[in-house]
Write a structure and sequence with these properties.
This protein is about 35% helix and about 20% strand. The protein is an alpha+beta fold and about 575 residues long. A hairpin with a 6-residue loop joins β2 and β3. The protein is globular. The C terminus is likely disordered. It comes from Canis lupus dingo (dingo).
Length: about 575
């Protein structure tokens, strides 16, 4: 009986074979499906990139649209797909090729010069109008229905209902809307092209047709600055302006982008720099290069949209401590139109190394904000070294400030810059100044320092005149260490005010010390640092972005004038 119950050897092998086969299938089938899906995805990506490369649209991929979106071809509701960051078209992946052929994008230049600058018709596209937009005919809200409906002009941004759209509107000339004074019309560039062929350069005749208030704006955005918002801002500005006015400085250097100013009337152009203080300095260096080329008449006025970490220059000019999308891009353009022109001192910092056999040329820097030697330069040097190793980890403004706080706390314990007064000699306008027991010296050109602190005016009953950025004077202060810097930041202490001067000279007698110019740090050996006035930059000041420090400082200065 036991022999009958025992299974045959071949039956056991057969069962084991089935188990192995099902195990292989359960393992290999998901692997095969994953491989096949990734292969198809890569093919679709290659096909999509090929369309993007050949297209006149500025297509961008997105995995999730930020608002209810409908394909402009099939009119179906879509969650992901592609959008044009110039004209605003939104399509499903399968309809991309059809949309590329059916819908033209914004024309940078007209195909012919038959139309005058004031006779360009509307360019309407259907669907996906901005939220809370109103019809120009009936004044009712547009885009409220859950389908592809209503029209938007990609130049003047006017919207109209399907039922309100008439032939008169289709043929009506476009006035470029609210930002007509900032937009370079395509017909203007066409006329300029024709004038250059005829060897004429009287661009003021063309500009007179656009009005006296026409101040065309050029956008220079750094897509890698601070919070990495630059890429999205580029698309939003291209939708509101002519795409030819918008540049990514990581792809097109400022000196090349600013050559667009030479096609505009004298002293009419404005530039909006979207980036940190370093990007602003890069653009101002390009402006100085234009002066060297004899293009002074085309020098633009510069505004700032702060995307960096410190943003002290933008804060001084009234543009705030940092932009994180809290106001729409359209409001940024309105602020630029309302801004007033001012001057900004720019300074030459010359560093001459000591030594009998030193044959190298002195290093030269251009300073807009401040120069420092001591603990704050040491924090910047440590931060810069770690950001160079892993740039992707330093894309958050809050995280960057936390790293600065960490290195400042570390220096409070180590005190690497102590006894600075024994290592450095300071001269203001040629007169030597005796220093107390300091750890750092800061030379200021602007009112703000360290991410929003008014260093020169300080706090308390002891009043000092406001630091100006256009008076040809530098303010020189000292700090007693990293902990003293932290106290100044939270308004618990004042710096040691050394004085004001037109020329500042520092002599580092021994050892290596950290130094920085506008946030660009380095370790420096024995040397002589000389700071002299270089030139002025034409900037734009926005008075609507005043902080509490600005208001209190202004009131303090008014009180001083009244007592006088």
């Amino acid at each position: 009986m036991e022999a009958e119950r025992r299974p045959a050897p071949h039956e056991g092998l057969f069962a084991d074979g089935h188990l192995v086969l099902w195990t292989l299938c359960s393992v290999l089938l998901p692997v095969f499906i994953t491989f096949w899906c990734s292969l198809q995805r890569s093919r679709r990506q290659l096909h999509r990139r090929d369309i993007f490369r050949k297209s006149k649209h500025g297509w961008r991929d997105t995995d999730l649209f930020s608002q209810p979106t409908y394909c402009c071809v099939c009119a179906q509701h879509i969650l992901l797909g592609a959008f044009c960051d110039c004209c605003g078209l939104r399509v499903d992946e399968g309809c991309l090729k059809k949309a590329d052929k059916r819908f033209p994008c914004k024309e940078i230049m007209l195909k012919s010069d038959a139309r005058a600058p004031d006779a360009m018709p509307h360019h309407w596209i259907r669907g996906n109008v901005p939220l809370c937009s109103c019809c120009v005919v009936c004044k009712q809200q547009c885009g409220s229905q859950p389908k592809l409906c209503d029209y938007r002009c990609i130049w003047c941004q006017k919207t109209v209902h399907d039922e309100c759209m008439k032939n008169s509107l289709k043929n009506e000339k476009c006035d470029f809307g609210e930002f007509r004074n900032l937009i370079i019309p395509p017909s203007y560039l066409t006329s300029i092209n024709q004038m250059r062929k005829d060897k004429k350069t009287d661009y003021a005749v063309l500009a007179s047709k656009l009005g006296k208030q026409w101040t065309p704006l050029i956008i220079l955005a750094n897509s890698r600055s601070g919070t990495n918002m630059g890429e999205g801002l580029l698309g939003e500005f291209r939708i509101l302006l002519n795409p030819v006015q918008v540049f990514d400085v990581t792809k097109t250097p400022p000196i090349k982008a600013l050559q667009l100013c030479t096609l505009l009337p004298y002293h009419s152009a404005r530039v909006l720099v979207c980036g940190g203080d370093g990007t602003v300095g890069w653009v101002l260096d390009a402006v100085d290069e234009m002066k060297m080329k004899g293009q002074e008449k085309y020098i633009p006025q510069v505004a700032v949209l702060p995307l960096g970490t410190g943003n002290d220059l933008s804060n001084t000019l009234g543009w705030g401590t940092g932009y994180a999308g809290e106001i729409p891009v359209a409001q940024v353009l309105r602020n630029v139109m309302e801004a007033d022109g001012i001057k900004l001192d720019r300074w030459k910092v010359q560093v001459t190394n000591k030594g009998y056999y030193n044959l190298r040329k002195p290093k030269e820097f251009t300073m807009n904000n401040y120069f420092s030697v001591g603990p704050d330069a040491l924090m910047a040097l440590n931060f810069h070294a770690h950001r160079e190793k892993a740039p992707s980890l330093f894309s958050s403004r809050i995280l960057n400030k936390a790293v600065y706080l960490f290195y400042g706390t570390k220096d409070c314990l180590v005190q690497e810059c102590k006894d600075l007064n024994k290592k450095i000699e300071l001269e203001l306008d040629g007169e030597r100044v005796e220093l107390p027991n300091l750890e750092g010296i800061i030379v200021l050109n602007i009112g703000y320092w360290g991410g929003g602190c008014r260093l020169w005016e300080g706090m308390g009953d002891e009043t000092y005149p406001l630091a100006r950025h256009d008076d040809g004077l530098l303010e020189v202060v000292g700090v007693y260490g990293s902990f003293h810097c932290a106290q100044i930041q939270v308004k618990l202490a004042n710096p040691f005010r050394i004085g004001q001067a037109h020329t500042v000279r520092l002599i580092l007698k021994c050892s290596m010390m950290p130094m920085q110019v506008d946030g660009e740090p380095w370790a420096q050996g024995p040397c002589t640092v000389t700071i002299t006035h270089k030139t002025h930059a034409l900037m734009l000041y926005f008075s609507g972005e005043q902080t509490d420090d600005d208001i209190s400082s202004t009131s303090d200065q008014e009180d001083i004038k009244e007592t006088e």
